[in-house]
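Session log. Operator J.P. requested a structure for one protein chain; no other inputs attached. Running the standard single-chain path with C-alpha cell output.
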Amino acid sequence: MSERAMELLLRRAAVGEALSWSESLDHLLESKAGRLVFEDFLRSEYSEENLLFWLACEDYKRSPSPHKMAAMAQRIFAEFVQVDAPRQINIDYLTRKSIRENISEPGLHSFDRAQKLIYALMENDCYPRFLKSDIYQAFLEHSKQQ
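Structure written below.
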C-alpha cells in the first residue's frame, strides 16, 4: 500500500476501529479500511484470492436479479473456482465438483460451502498472522499518533 493511501485510510479509521479489528475477523471484514489493510497483508503473502473470493460471494448473495446472479456465478467460477483459475482458491475436490455441477443453474447458496471453507482458512491461518504483522502493527501505531 502506498504511503499516501495509508495516510488517507488513517484519517478515516479511528484508533478504536483499528483496535476492534483484533476482536474478530468479522470486525475486520465489516470495516472498509480493515478490508483494505487485510487485503494488502494478504497480497504480501500471495493469498489475496481468499479475501477477494469471500467478498465476491458476499456481492453475489446481494445480487438483485437471477440474470445478474447467473453472470456473477460464472465470473466467480472462472476467476476463483475452476482448476487453473487466475485466482484459484484452495478448496477440496468435492466442493469444487459440486459447484462445477451446479454452475449452470446457480442459486443463492451455490458458493456457501466454499465461502465457509475460505472464511475458516482466513480466520484460523491468515487472520492470526495479520494481527502480528508489521502492516497491522504499523497501522495501529499510526492510528494512535493521529
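Operator note: Residues 112-132 form the longest helix (21 residues).
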